[in-house]
Amino acid sequence: MVYETLNKVGEKYALLIDSYISDILRGEPEDLYKAAMHLIKAGGKRLRPMITLASSRALGGASSEAKAVYYAAAVEILHNFSLVHDDIMDNDDFRRGIPTVHKVYGVNLAILAGDLMFSYAFLTPYLAIKAGADNNEITKAVEVIGEGSRKIAEGQGYDIMFEKTWDVDEKDYLKMIYLKTGALIEASSKLGGIASNSDDEIVELLGEFGRFVGLAFQIRDDILGVFGDPAKTGKPIFNDLKRGKKTILVLYASKRKEEWKKFFIKLFSGNQSDENIKEAVDIIKESGSLNYAEELAKNYYNNAIDKLDSIEKNGIVKDEESFKSLRELAEFSINRDK
Amino acid sequence: MVYETLNKVGEKYALLIDSYISDILRGEPEDLYKAAMHLIKAGGKRLRPMITLASSRALGGASSEAKAVYYAAAVEILHNFSLVHDDIMDNDDFRRGIPTVHKVYGVNLAILAGDLMFSYAFLTPYLAIKAGADNNEITKAVEVIGEGSRKIAEGQGYDIMFEKTWDVDEKDYLKMIYLKTGALIEASSKLGGIASNSDDEIVELLGEFGRFVGLAFQIRDDILGVFGDPAKTGKPIFNDLKRGKKTILVLYASKRKEEWKKFFIKLFSGNQSDENIKEAVDIIKESGSLNYAEELAKNYYNNAIDKLDSIEKNGIVKDEESFKSLRELAEFSINRDK
Predict the structure, then answer these.
(1) Collapsing DSSP states into helix, strand and coil, what is residue A116?
(2) B136 and A138: CB-CB below 8 Å?
(3) Which of A225, B81, B92, B274 is the most buried (most CB within 10 A)?
(4) How far is A252 from chain B (nearest CA, A)?
(5) How many CA atoms lie within 13 A of B233 on its CB side?
(6) What separation, in Å, do the N-terminal and C-terminal C-alpha atoms of chain A show?
């Protein structure tokens, strides 16, 4: 898969966003700010800010980018905050190929660094005032970030709870991944719409685009958790299986055959030898779970593309290249191996 | 000490704020929201929302209260968020006389409940729109909350760092307690000014009032940490001494006599027998630390009152009773035993 436009636009945006965040997340005490920048400095896909910047430029042209960059930075800071706290909760040692924040700085400073980043996620949109945003726009942007952050916490709550119960079906799973992952990508695309001064209806369409991309992205994430290459994902493999996560891969197989469900119940209750993990992977393939998950992600991808088509029909696209990069971002979300 | 006006106004405000927060902090998953409400339900002084409500009513009359109650709720939610995360970091078992959130719900859900509360601190001010606030006012209110939350994290960062170093003087201590405690009380009084549509200059004066109250309040807190009655404070005693906190009580004594400093260095490096704690208490009294801290708090109280006097001179006080309760709140902050 070659993402010609995305690669071109993406690299530019990643550099832009990194330089803005480095300027914004500065202060004292030094150790706390270092801890807050630790994960951000390690890179990452920058998917969310790219969506904000590409949506904004696609519909608002180059002039809206000066505002959008602050919303994009806010979203990326919020995303990184959630990763820092997640890694503490999951006791993960590695992320993006480097030791996690709490491994380097200790749990207390990591909790606090997350909280600091959280506050910056709300303060950063205000910087768009100097790029011409008015208070109406700031109010909208901050509310979108607030809703996103609330949903992340709720989604994480479900995620933790689902580890301890088998009373979870596909609908529950989809709700959980929407809250945990989809909502912030939805926020990212909405913020691009807000920066471009688009009509509410267009902002909503962009939001739906982001929601579908987010769902596809998380399903792909769950697939990579079992079939990915740690050298590319930067994360250890089989963590979800070891933690009893009720991903779609596990839920689908467990619904298809009682025997498979029994196997996963046993696996999740503690017997996690290499052979057992291997058997789990075999079941996920044999049951059709992998295919099913890929189809599901594909469906969401198609829905995302439909939303872009609806936006295009309005004849409001100002920058074709940025708009095309949104299509490629959606495609990336279901095909990515990192 | 009898706080006639404060008792009357305060009880009304505490009930009001509790009922609003109970209505706002609702949602799913149930366990997460229960964890978020755990500490709030246990009561608390509600000092911060009282300051917001009293400032607002004092200068804006009864009509501004409908908006102010949302800002007051936001501040109280933010305050409780910071306590939930603090208790995890300090591994405290009790707060407000009940087991802390992480003791009841586990560390993971407590981190998450804190994050959820954090997001609500930013979403709650938006509810003031239905009480007549416009986007300019919301923008101001949310920014004040954002600045407050950033400072809390920075202050906590210093607090943690100071446990591990003796390179801390009174100036460092005062900066730390301003960030950790003063800033949110400053935000509380500013928000009252914003709700009452006061001029920027008055909002600033209110902020300074809050800042001084906050400094006095935290110094009193440090005194109660050594001389308080756990049955009244709801917190275990001597925690600060056991944790090596460089409170003003310790800093002042350590500066006065090398011998006392050596004692505290030894105490903080691990030898915390009952006799040693008792000796620490004796040193704090003998060194004049207790007197000094009380005088310092008194000074801040006087500064706070000066700010109220300046406001009063403008002839803008609309509700004398609420204004008087602000004076009593300042007095409470230096005389309280809970």
Answers:
(1) helix
(2) no
(3) B81
(4) 23
(5) 20
(6) 13
* Complete domains list, chain A, with CATH: 4-335 (1.10.600.10)
Q: Do the chains contact at A28 and B154, CB–CB below 8 Å?
A: yes
Q: Could A112 and B89 be called an inter-chain contact, meaning their C-beta atoms sit closer than 8 Å?
A: yes
Q: What percent of chain A has pLDDT over 70?
A: 99
A115–B149 CB contact, under 8 Å: yes
Residues 6+ positions from A226 with CB-CB distance below 8 Å? A237, A238, A240, A241, A247, A249, A280, A281, A284
Q: Please give the structure tokens belonging to residue A89.
A: 């909760």
SS3 A76: helix
Whole-number pLDDT of residue B338 = 85
Q: Report chain B residues touching chain A, CB-CB < 8 A.
A: 27-29, 31-32, 82, 85, 88-89, 107-109, 111-116, 118-120, 122-123, 126, 135-136, 138-139, 142-143, 145-147, 149-150, 152-154, 156-158, 160-161
CA atoms within 13 A on the CB side of B212: 22
For residue B120, give the chain A residue with the closest CA.
Answer: A150
What ipTM score was computed for the predicted complex, to two decimals?
0.96
The predicted-structure confidence for B143-187, as pLDDT tens digits, reads as follows 999 999 999 999 999 999 999 999 999 999 999 999 999 999 999
pLDDT, one tens digit per residue, over A95-139 is 998 999 999 999 999 999 999 999 999 999 999 999 999 999 999
Task: Please list the ranges in chain A whose pLDDT falls under 70.
Answer: 1-2
Q: What is the largest CA-CA distance in chain B?
A: 61
* pTM across the whole model: 0.96
DSSP A124-185: GGGGGGGGT--HHHHHHHHHHHHHHHHHHHHHHHHHHHHTT-S---HHHHHHHHIIIIIHHH
Of A107, A138, A146, the CB nearest to B119: A146
Distance CA A338, CA B65 (A): 52
